[in-house]
Amino acid sequence: MPLSVAAFYQFVALPDFRDLRSPLHAFCAERAIKGSILLAAEGINGTVAGTDQAIAALVDEFRHGPLFAGRLDNLELKFSSAAAMPFQRLKVRLKREIVTLGDPAADPTRQVGTYVSPTDWNALITAPDTVVLDTRNAFEVALGTFDGAIDPGLQSFGQFKDFVARALDPAKHKRIAMFCTGGIRCEKASALLLARGFSEVYHLKGGILSYLEEIPEAESLWRGGCFVFDDRVTLGHGLREQGHAMQQNVPEDPR
């Protein structure tokens, strides 16, 4: 039976994030949910897999249960499926940031760029003078990206701020459109660009996963596979499992 996979995040104040770790781990373990969840003072980020019933129970707990007490009301959530369990174990970790950029000016709770729906994305990235940035790591870009997108050559997302300082200029690059796997890295990246004086900053709502789910392949400007940080390796249009020749241990990184 196929399993349900949920990728989720929300930037939200969680001053008690350390106290949330044990009960959240227990909730998932009791339902045989596996995957990785990150907790920090700035929010939650994770991808987990389990039966439909188990994942539904977890989402209900996030949205309505006592553990988060209604604080995850804007949870960004994306579902896909897996033929077999794509994770080896369950991890709930405490972090300084749920996606590591290392620049306090990049605060998505204060400001983020303009969200662009998948149905409007093609028009934006093909418009004249739009700078299209892939904010993911270089090995992810090598497996698939959008036509015409710039690869910053990142080994880790923390290097994005250095790329911005080196390669982008608010006076020259007027319109910037960014994308990542599920949207979380673009939240931080857009907040950084706005803090550094860029005025017209856009990012793909729900990330590549939403685009691949919603846009028909015949109309798509995506080429290749979308790397996911689990044993499925890459997903294609319709969020179908593709797999890939690269079957070494999958590195860990937030969406």
Automatic annotation (TrEMBL):
Coiled coil: none annotated. It is an enzyme of class 1 (oxidoreductase). It comes from the Bacteria. Residues 126-220 form the Rhodanese domain. SUPFAM superfamilies: Rhodanese/Cell cycle control phosphatase. It holds the Pfam family Rhodanese. It catalyses: uridine(34) in tRNA + AH2 + O2 = 5-hydroxyuridine(34) in tRNA + A + H2O. Its EC number is 1.14.-.-. Keywords: Oxidoreductase, tRNA processing. The keyword Lyase does not apply. Belongs to the TrhO family. PANTHER family: RHODANESE-LIKE DOMAIN-CONTAINING PROTEIN 7-RELATED, THIOSULFATE SULFURTRANSFERASE/RHODANESE-LIKE DOMAIN-CONTAINING PROTEIN 2. Catalyzes oxygen-dependent 5-hydroxyuridine (ho5U) modification at position 34 in tRNAs. NCBIfam families: PRK00142.1-4. This is tRNA uridine(34) hydroxylase.
